Amino acid sequence: MKRRGIFLTGTDTGAGKTLVSCAILAALRKRGIRVAAYKPVETGCRSAGGELVGEDCVRLAAASGQNAEDVAAYRFREPAAPLVAAEAEGAVIRRDVLLEHFRAIADSVDFVLVESAGGLMVPLAASCTTRDLAEALALPVVCVVASRLGCINHALLTFQALRSSSLFPAGFVMNRVSADHADDEFALASATNRAVIGRFAGARDLGEMPFVDAAQRDDIDHLAALAEEHLELDAISA
């Protein structure tokens, strides 16, 4: 199932996967590349007009030019791991459905970005983790690392899980999840996380997204400009 694209995962929930995904998609789209986003499962969705709406899907669609309802194969109400959210609704996430939805999206574009729900080892179904799905899709994996205390361990464990699979670790993107404060008690960790992960991860440093204020996180043009300035887009889109 070889396609041009990336499988984008994160060190944990709240790492900033959707922010980085939107920035990459918007920047590549501005370059004239036909892009699409695929979020296999989104949990924590809200009800609107009798339908479940995923906020991540809405944001990804705005960046890629898709319809939001086409981005995810499954949407669930509970803010929990996909397996848990599905079981809470008496549903089962089927691997064949995930793969078929991916094909439908990827076959019509030049570049597809798959954004995982949570981290690499999150369970999707009884015998399928996010890593298992990534292996089936056979895309290079980019890991978004939230720059905060503890992220070095999370990042290195993620790359260890990648190395024990058939997946190719394309690299990591650091994401600044808070504004810089020189007098912050974690200032040293924040200033050195990226370099230390680069030394030990055995994967390429693909750049660092600066902190984006909440008021600007839906500004697609702004995110595209940040990606062009701060990320290794040529390597990411190769």
Summarize the structure.
The protein has helices spanning 17-30, 55-64, 82-88, 95-106, 130-137, 151-163, 187-200, 220-230, 233-236; strands at residues 5-10, 35-42, 46-48, 51-53, 72-75, 111-115, 123-125, 128-129, 141-146, 169-175, 205-209. With 238 residues, the protein is α/β, with parallel strands linked by helices. It has one domain (5-40, 94-236): Rossmann fold (3-Layer(aba) Sandwich).
CATH superfamily: P-loop containing nucleotide triphosphate hydrolases
Strand proportion? 15-25%
Quote the average pLDDT: 94
Helix percent band = 25-40%
CATH class identity: Alpha Beta
Q: Supply the CATH architecture.
A: 3-Layer(aba) Sandwich
Query: How many domains, as an integer?
Result: 1
Topology:
Layout: E1 5-10, H1 17-30, E2 35-42, E3 46-48, E4 51-53, H2 55-64, E5 72-75, H3 82-88, H4 95-106, E6 111-115, E7 123-125, E8 128-129, H5 130-137, E9 141-146, H6 151-163, E10 169-175, H7 187-200, E11 205-209, H8 220-230, H9 233-236
Parallel strand pairs: 1-6, 1-9, 2-5, 2-6, 9-10, 10-11
Antiparallel strand pairs: 3-4, 7-8
